[in-house]
TrEMBL record:
Span list, region Disordered: 209-228
HAMAP family listed in its UniProt record: GARS (MF_00138)
Organism, as annotated: Anaerosporobacter mobilis DSM 15930
Key words of the record: ATP-binding, Ligase, Manganese, Metal-binding, Nucleotide-binding, Purine biosynthesis
UniProt-recorded name of the protein: Phosphoribosylamine--glycine ligase
Chain's gene name: purD
Pathway(s) per entry: Purine metabolism; IMP biosynthesis via de novo pathway; N(1)-(5-phospho-D-ribosyl)glycinamide from 5-phospho-alpha-D-ribose 1-diphosphate: step 2/2
Reaction equation(s) it catalyzes: 5-phospho-beta-D-ribosylamine + glycine + ATP = N(1)-(5-phospho-beta-D-ribosyl)glycinamide + ADP + phosphate + H(+)
InterPro entries reported for this sequence: ATP-grasp, ATP_grasp_subdomain_1, PreATP-grasp_dom_sf, PRibGlycinamid_synth_ATP-grasp, PRibGlycinamide_synth, PRibGlycinamide_synth_C-dom, PRibGlycinamide_synth_C_sf, PRibGlycinamide_synth_CS
Domain ATP-grasp: 107-313
The organism's taxonomic lineage, starting at the top: Bacteria, Bacillati, Bacillota, Clostridia, Lachnospirales
Signal peptide: none
GO MF annotation terms: ATP binding; metal ion binding; phosphoribosylamine-glycine ligase activity
Sequence ranges of Basic and acidic residues compositional bias: 211-220
Length: 423
């Protein structure tokens, strides 16, 4: 098979790694890819949002399967474009990707079908939102309705903070058009867990659990980011929690989308909060998480191509999804200053230290190949991932491996998976 992967981040590198292990694949392309993906695939200079150009490439190169890694093209309808040309593609159609593309849609869906989530209200007017906040309980959560690179959520402790938040999202357009509509949500407390699941429109098969660390600084301080690190599995995601979610979240969401005429095929990402009253859905995404994919996919025993084909063909029930009985931790190496201002073009050294070391991975995110070598090309630069027989061992291995890579403005959190030590 020839496979095309769409995207350029650590998630797409993790997908490319899994695809490269498949016995069914002999050629991988990636649009546009990065310096690390280039070691596994032929990178092509097409933007993920150039939907017709992507489809043209797939036609001209007789691509057997295209895997969409990113949210933007999914929400824009890339799957519909491919399917209209008879091209095989993995991901939800536009009318199903709205589950990530609009938080207001997903909240309304959960409310209608009794899927457990936080109480909320939706606003198209900043003035109406501020009036509502005058009598709200605090803390409270503000969410830009649309896509905001995982950063469109503000937790506000006072009315003044919330009022400023509404203005920055809806009036100052901090997150662009994503803030045209605002969801205001009750603040929930508990452990956060991410569960990714394969879907074929009818059936859903959850993968192993993971936990992300969104804030830029240790102790969950600083600004929201795309994710500073993950661990898998979560010790807080118990058998009882899984059984509850299988019935009242995962299958309920698939059934709800089908009832709405929006059959969901691809990856459903469920962000959960484990509250005192039970699991609640924080958010849905319509693709692999980043950096969740970097800890979940290396632990998957199945051939990823076989699983994806089963999803497309409506035969996911035939797949026995299995994961290794171990753990993995990913520590993101970022450029100092991320998620605000940071320098690019800084040379990275030490990649050779990962060669031949089983259970250690360096997934590229913001990197670029130049005449001088591989240089930084983004805020999140690399995801250093390691396995271990236990979470503590995996965490120790991952942090040891971060020492193998060097660039002058290297920054990372030092407490990824610290919750493991407290479990």
């Amino acid at each position: 098979m020839k496979v095309l992967i769409v995207g350029s981040g650590g998630r797409e590198h993790a997908i490319a790694y899994s695809v490269s292990k498949s016995n069914h694949v002999d050629k991988i392309y990636c649009a546009p890819g990065n310096a690390g993906i280039a070691g596994l695939a032929e990178c092509v200079t097409i933007s993920p949002m150039e939907l017709d150009k992507l489809a043209d490439f797939a036609e001209e190169n007789k691509i057997d399967l295209t895997i969409i890694g990113m949210d933007d093209p999914l929400v824009a309808g890339v799957v519909d474009v491919f399917e209209a040309r008879g091209l095989r593609v993995f991901g939800p159609r536009k009318n199903a990707a709205i589950i990530e593309g609009s938080k207001a849609f997903s909240k309304d869906l959960m409310k209608k079908y009794n899927i457990p989530t936080a109480a909320y209200e939706t606003f198209d007017s900043a003035d109406e939102a501020i009036t509502y906040l005058e009598t709200s309980a605090y803390p409270i959560v503000l969410k830009a309705d649309g896509l905001a690179l995982g950063k469109g959520v503000l937790i506000c402790n006072t009315f003044e903070e919330a009022k400023d938040g509404v203005k920055s999202i809806m009036l100052d357009k901090q997150f662009g058009s994503a803030g045209n509509r605002l969801v205001i949500e009750e603040f929930m407390t508990g452990r956060e867990v991410s569960v990714l699941a394969y879907c074929d429109g009818t059936h859903i098969k959850p993968m192993t659990s993971a936990q992300d660390h969104k804030r830029a600084k240790d102790g969950d301080q600083g600004l929201n980011t795309g994710g500073m690190g993950t661990f898998s599995p979560s010790p807080f995601y118990t058998k009882e929690v899984d059984e509850f979610c299988e019935k009242y979240v995962y299958q309920a969401t698939m059934d709800a989308m089908k009832a709405e005429g929006r059959d969901f095929t691809g990856i459903l990402f469920c962000g959960l909060m484990l509250t005192e009253k039970g699991p609640r859905v924080l958010e849905y995404n319509a693709r692999f998480g980043d950096p969740e994919a970097q800890v979940v996919l290396p632990r998957m025993k199945n051939d990823i191509i076989e699983v994806m084909n089963a999803c497309i063909d409506g035969k996911l029930d035939d797949i026995d999804l299995q994961f290794e009985d171990n753990a993995a931790v990913c520590v993101v190496l970022a450029s100092a200053g991320y998620p605000e201002k940071y320098d690019k073009g800084i040379k990275i050294t030490g990649f050779e230290n990962f060669e031949g070391k089983d259970g250690y991975y360096v997934f590229h995110a913001g990197t670029k190949e130049t005449e001088e070598g591989i240089v930084t090309n983004g805020g999140r630069v690399l995801g250093v991932t390691a396995k271990g027989s236990t979470l503590k061992e995996a965490r120790a291995n991952a942090y040891e491996a971060t020492k193998w890579i060097d660039f002058s403005n290297k920054y990372m959190r030092n407490d990824i998976g610290k919750a493991i030590d407290e479990a």
